[in-house]
Write a structure and sequence with these properties.
Elements: E1 2-9, H1 16-25, E2 33-38, E3 42-48, E4 62-63, E5 69-77, H2 80-89, H3 99-110, E6 120-128, E7 133-138, E8 147-150, E9 154-158, H4 161-164, H5 176-185, E10 198-200, E11 205-210, E12 216-220, H6 225-228, H7 236-253, E13 261-264, H8 269-280, E14 287-292, H9 301-311, E15 314-319, H10 325-334, H11 344-354, E16 360-362, H12 367-371, H13 375-386, H14 391-403, H15 414-425, H16 429-435, H17 442-449, H18 454-459, H19 463-472, H20 478-488, H21 490-505, E17 509-511, H22 517-524, H23 539-544, H24 551-554, H25 565-568, H26 576-585
Parallel strand pairs: 13-14, 13-16, 14-15, 16-17
Antiparallel strand pairs: 1-3, 1-9, 2-3, 4-5, 5-6, 6-7, 7-11, 8-9, 8-10, 11-12
Helix pairs in contact: 2-3, 7-22, 11-21, 14-15, 15-16, 20-21
């Protein structure tokens, strides 16, 4: 796991020191080794977090034996040994045990087609001297990030925005569309960022840059939707067996490392299943990590401790507490870009805790998007019932709920959830699914960003992106449509963004077995009625995991990883936070 950076131009002289500074900004992603190479028309940089083959042979940027290809790569290819054997059979030789050399050799043999063979997470750039081209690529689901700035015969790219901003030629103009998307969702949908000139490469995408004319060509090498359309008509029991076998294999692959491997453990189904399967691989002295809060309704440390006892792990935990608004904003600033998922705070802290003991940590991320684990999927069922209530009554109920105080001590209050649901029920099913995660609606965003920006805000409404994916999946049943849409939006740009930034901030690698490509493709083929049965979420997964998880974990109410931000903030009129909100609404600055 690493950080990558580079620049190329046909109009200006390249400064190696720029990439050097960009790599310095990525030191947390790769503290073990840094190298910058000047290839005349291209400068490539890399910071290395050594996971497999800790020798200098794995250092990057890596050149091919012929000297034509140069690779800077961030990620892990879990099936690299199988691919390596195939290449050995073709007559290639290798000087290291790294997956990096396998990636480079694969490109030499198969060109852009090689990315279809990789089971893993990656963001990379390969410079081909003979073609005078740079090939950029990102993994299928967007586990590893890649940002770039392209303008007038010049490109600058990096794993993180703060690194990219070390390049003085990068335009820092704010993007109204990007900021509007953030205000709507709490995260920004690729390819947008908060900067007008900086883009985020989309998942499952190859971007080919011709250095002669600086034209780019983007192609997608994988279509998730295809796998929803090929349904497995096997029996329920056979499907359960396939789920278990494929998930077990995904965990086994993610235990491959030359450094200590641990796991995040909340005590819920997803993380507990990963820990249980790690133990099935006869791993001893497994370290697990949890973060909690001093507020009971948010704290899951007792559940995590119970799971640790069941699976006999060496457990570590920490209590996360924020004393003032400044501390909270410091966490946000660590992300280097606009991001409002409150779980970023405990994710940063539990990653820091894990870094004291391991270099790799497995997580349960992705299970909810694959098996319909969120309350929003149940809301689709309630939506049908809500349509039986006249619209004027629903509108009246929304107004009444707006007058009532929230008395619940739960993470998300009942009144708020009911109000959000009723608002969504006034729209189409597609718009309702989108609106249940909406923070600021369009008119709110216009008030914040200014009437003069209304046209941009309306034309770039994030719903249009959701609608595009819904339309692509229109021939699927509605639950499958939602699972597809969420995996193209919320999963890469919120969940996986958070995991990458938080783990890399503490120089550890986060691995997600549930996102194994073979597992993901198979689960898409499972009939949706097995995922959400009535109001029972993740039905088939829970039934499948009975062989390794006790009922106390399987049927524990889903909690989530939200942070008690409301309790941390002083909501008095004179507070710093109140003044901050007032400042935003008065549009004094973005």
């Amino acid at each position: 796991m690493c950080g990558i950076a580079g620049i190329a131009s046909r109009t200006v002289s390249l400064d190696r020191a720029v990439v050097d500074s960009m790599c310095d900004s990525l030191d947390h992603r790769g503290p073990d080794f840094k190298r910058v190479v000047d290839l005349s028309s291209v400068v490539l940089g890399h910071t290395r977090l050594s996971i497999i083959d800790l020798s200098e042979k794995g250092s990057q940027p890596m050149a091919s034996p012929c000297g034509n290809y140069h690779l800077t790569y961030n990620g892990e290819i879990y099936n690299f040994r199988e691919i390596k054997q195939e290449l050995l059979d073709k007559g290639y030789s290798f000087s290291s045990e790294t997956d990096t050399e396998v990636v480079l050799t694969s490109f030499m043999e198969w060109g852009k087609e090689c990315f279809k063979r990789f089971n893993g997470m990656f963001a990379l750039a390969i410079y081909s001297k003979s073609d005078s081209k740079i090939f950029f690529a990102r993994d299928r689901l967007g586990q590893k990030p890649l940002y770039y700035y392209l303008n007038d015969g010049y490109i600058s790219f990096s794993s993180e925005i703060p690194s990219l901003l070390q390049d003085p030629l990068v335009n820092r103009e704010k993007s109204i569309a990007g900021v509007s998307c953030f205000l709507a969702l709490g995260y920004i949908l690729a390819p947008l960022t908060q900067y007008e000139g900086i883009k985020k490469l989309e998942p499952a995408t190859i971007m080919e840059l011709d250095l002669n004319d600086f034209e780019i060509k983007k192609t997608r090498y994988w279509n998730y939707l295809d796998h929803f359309k090929k349904k497995d008509d096997s029996s329920f029991e056979k499907i359960k067996g396939k789920i278990f076998d494929k998930l077990s294999e995904a965990v086994r692959l993610r235990l491959i490392a030359d450094v200590p491997v641990g796991a995040f453990l909340s005590g819920g189904i997803d993380s507990s299943s990963i820990v249980a399967l790690i133990k099935e691989n006869k791993v001893t002295d497994l370290h697990t990590f949890s973060a909690g809060f001093k507020y009971d309704s948010y704290n899951e440390l007792s559940e995590a401790k119970e799971a640790s006892t069941i699976f006999d792990t060496i457990h570590h935990e920490c209590i996360v507490d924020i004393k003032n608004e400044k501390e909270l904003f410091d966490y946000v600033n660590r992300y280097g870009e606009l991001f409002a998922d409150t779980s970023l705070v405990p994710m940063v802290e539990v990653s820091a805790l894990a870094s004291k003991h391991v270099k790799v940590a497995l997580s349960g991320d992705g299970a909810d998007e694959l098996f319909a684990g969120y309350i929003t999927y149940k809301a689709n069922i309630y939506y049908k019932i809500a349509q039986l209530i006249p619209r004027f009554i629903r509108r009246l109920l929304i107004k009444i709920l707006g007058w009532l105080p929230e008395l619940s001590s739960k993470k998300i209050g009942t009144i708020f959830k009911l109000s959000q649901f009723l608002k969504g029920s006034l729209h189409s099913r597609e718009r309702a699914h989108y609106s249940w995660r909406l923070i600021f609606d369009l008119e709110d965003r216009v008030r914040i960003l200014g009437e003069e920006n209304r046209d941009i805000i309306e034309k770039t409404d994030p719903f249009f992106t959701f609608k595009k994916y819904f339309e692509q999946a229109s021939d699927l049943d509605f639950l499958d449509q939602c699972l597809y849409v969420d995996s193209m939006t919320w999963l890469p740009d919120d969940i996986l963004q958070k995991l990458d930034i938080a783990t890399m901030a503490s120089s550890i690698e986060g691995r997600s077995p549930y996102l194994d490509v073979n597992f993901v493709e198979y689960v898409a083929s499972i009939p949706s009625r097995y995922k959400l049965k009535g109001l029972k979420t993740k039905f088939i997964l829970k039934d499948c995991l009975r062989r390794i998880l006790p009922d106390s974990i399987l049927f524990r109410k889903k909690s989530g990883f939200n942070a008690p931000v409301g309790k941390w903030m002083n909501k008095g009129e004179g507070s710093e936070f109140a003044r901050f909100i007032e400042l935003i609404y008065r549009k004094k600055e973005i």
